[in-house]
Amino acid sequence: MTEGRDVGGALRASPPYALLDTVREHLAAVYGATLVRLYLTDYGGTVLSPCDPSCDPSENGAGSLPVSNSPEGRALGSQERHAQQVPHGDAVDHHLPVTVRGDRIGILTVRLPRDRSTPAVLDELRQVVDQLGHEILVAERDTDLYQRARRVSRLTLAAEMQWQLLPARACTAAQYAIGAQLEPAYTVHGDNFDWASDGDELTLTVTNGMGQGVDASLLTHLAVSALRNARRAGVGLADQAALADRAVYDHYRGASHVSTLLVRVELATGRMEIIDAGSPQLWRLRGRTVERIDPDRQLPLGMFEESHYVPQSFTVLPGDRLLFVSDGVYEAPSPRGGTYVEAALARALQSTRLLPAALVPGALLRDVAEYRAAETLDDALVLCFDWFGDSLD
């Protein structure tokens, strides 16, 4: 049966703001769906927000849902479809994760008659959901609908700039999985992360621009753009750092700098090159042993003119988990005294070891918030990198 695949052409021809209407019409005609709702994960990763320009959120129960305590949230967390019997009727709601290369975009809920809720139909719905997810990412270039739906409150201008700079919040491949999160999600200003893979190597960067508000965001934006420009020119890790250092120094003349951790991973071998140019820290969980990877400290980007950077070599082994954290995490103070790195980071790495990489940053940042006993965080970043090794081995 190929009916489920036919929606691809319709989605590609659809206006970018009308993807849900296109899917809804298709599922009603082909499978007899009586309800189709799309929920998108908010910037903080704690809420599923309805995305439907034709529906009043106050009607028909189409309001925001908690990720932590809802059937839809359980489907998102497990990345497995979840079925829910509809009260007072012979229909079933199927909550289907919308995920693209590991990035957990949201949930599509489809209500089907019970006699149409067969394994074959559900497999076809999975194909529809996969196509919808890819088309949403493409459509975001031409409409604000999906990004607007992800917001439970207004972003500050600095946060708007930071979120637009990010690649995604998760990524999976045969050799690795990545998950990352910024907090406070709606007001973050200086912290950022980036990654890119060309099939032979993966480059990861974690940056922390000094200062507050838009000034910090502008500084980070310059540094990340300079690093990308150098990386896309095909130069090595040391030259990426040097060129970005020069770009920041030329603009700020040493008055502002960017703390940066750069990592390049050879995907065939697990060999890593690391440049530690500032405050972000790198921790490793290997088996049940937690330890900090502590390369030689080098100058932050833009602090002095013509800085020279030297990569150091490490190797990751299959099963290793690496955790990148900004100073807003490891220096988080407790009202009782001491910092998070001294009292809780190793414990948190152990307690989250069974979670997939995509869920670790959120869990760790919630733990940091509880440790601080405060409602808000200073800028805080967590990036989790799981190494599986070459799938051909």
UniProtKB/TrEMBL annotation:
SMART domains found in the cross-reference section: PP2C_SIG (SM00331)
Pfam families xref list: SpoIIE (PF07228)
Keyword Hydrolase recorded: yes
SUPFAM superfamilies: GAF domain-like (SSF55781), PP2C-like (SSF81606)
Keyword tags: Hydrolase
Ranges where the record places region Disordered: 54-88
Domain (PPM-type phosphatase) ranges: 173-387
InterPro entries attached to this UniProt entry: Bact_Sigma-Reg, PPM-type-like_dom_sf, PPM-type_phosphatase-like_dom
Identification of the protein by name: Phosphatase
Organism the protein comes from: Streptomyces kronopolitis
